[in-house]
Amino acid sequence: QVQLVESGGGLVQAGGSLRLVCAASGRTFSRYVMAWFRQAPGKEREFVATISRSATNTFYADSVKGRFTISRDNAKNTVYLQMNSLKPEDTAVYSCAAKAEYGPFTTVVDAARYDYWGQGTQVTVSS
User: Fold this and answer.
1) What's the number of CA atoms in the CB half-sphere (13 Å) around residue 102?
2) What pLDDT digit, counting tens, does each position of 34-85 carry?
3) CA distance linking residue 100 with residue 37, whole number of Å
4) 32: part of which helix (H) or strand (E)?
């Protein structure tokens, strides 16, 4: 089992940057594909980015491509989301998620297929 704890959210002006951190418990962190999702008030949860177990592969939603970067450090059981050029429409609660995977990396954007979730961290971008 994996427990996930996010941090790094906050209030930032449009055009600014934030770095989200997701710390995972357990010894088998490297077995999990990791992802970030977000949910704005009144909207459905939205896929943001995902990264393979070895960090070799990443995939982004079109809305954040070129602005956000997902990365991970398996030695520290941590996944990051660097967010640059933030826009007011990026305002949401950001959550990290983990999915056990034993075969080749596949891009999964469906939140229902992820096994473990953090509690989320609020990101607010002012105009």
Assistant:
1) 0
2) 999 999 999 999 999 999 999 999 999 999 999 999 999 999 999 999 999 9
3) 17
4) strand 32-39
